[in-house]
C-alpha cells in the first residue's frame, strides 16, 4: 500500500470538495473519517497550546508532547485504514497518570468551571475538543464497522478524562482554587 506524504501545500485537488487519504483514497471533505481527522488535528493543536501555557513544568510538557505523537498516530490510522499505529500501551499510560494525579487531588464536591488559570483553561478547552473528536470517531466506527480500531475512540475517551484531571492538577499547582459551579436553586 503506497503512502502519500505531503510534499506540496497547494495541490488544488481538494477544490472539488474531496480530499486524499495517505493511501491515495479520495473522500468527500464532509465524510465522517475526514471530520475525525480534522477533530484530531484540532485537538493536537489544543494540546500544543497547553504545552506552552505559562507555568507548565518541563516534565509535563514532555508528557503532553508524547500525547501529541499518539494523536498523530491516530490521524495516521485514520489516513491509512487498516494500519495500526497507536502504541498498545498508550491507553494504560493515560490510566496510570490519571490514577497518580487523582491520588493528590481532593474529592470533587461539585462541577468545576474552566478558568482557574490559563493552563487550567487550556486543558479544559483541549478536553472539550477531545470529547468532540471521540464522538466523531464513534461515528466513523458506526459507519464503517471493523474498518476503525475500537482502541482509537477508547483512547480519546480516556484522554478527555486525563485532560480533566490534568486541569484540576494545574489549578492546584498554580495555587488557584477551582471555580465551582453554583446551582441557582441552591
Description:
This protein is mainly alpha-helical and 186 residues long. It has one domain: Up-down Bundle (Hypothetical Protein Ta1238, Chain: A), CATH 1.20.1200.10. It is built from 5 helices and 4 strands. The protein has a two-stranded antiparallel ribbon with strand order 1-2. A two-stranded antiparallel sheet has the order 3-4. The longest helix has 27 residues. It is elongated, with a radius of gyration of 18 Å.
Topology readout:
Layout: E1 18-20, E2 26-28, H1 32-51, H2 58-79, H3 90-102, E3 112-113, H4 118-144, H5 151-173, E4 179-180
Antiparallel strand pairs: 1-2, 3-4
Helix pairs in contact: 1-2, 1-4, 3-5, 4-5
What features would you highlight for this structure?
mainly alpha; Hypothetical Protein Ta1238, Chain: A; two-stranded antiparallel ribbon; 4 strands
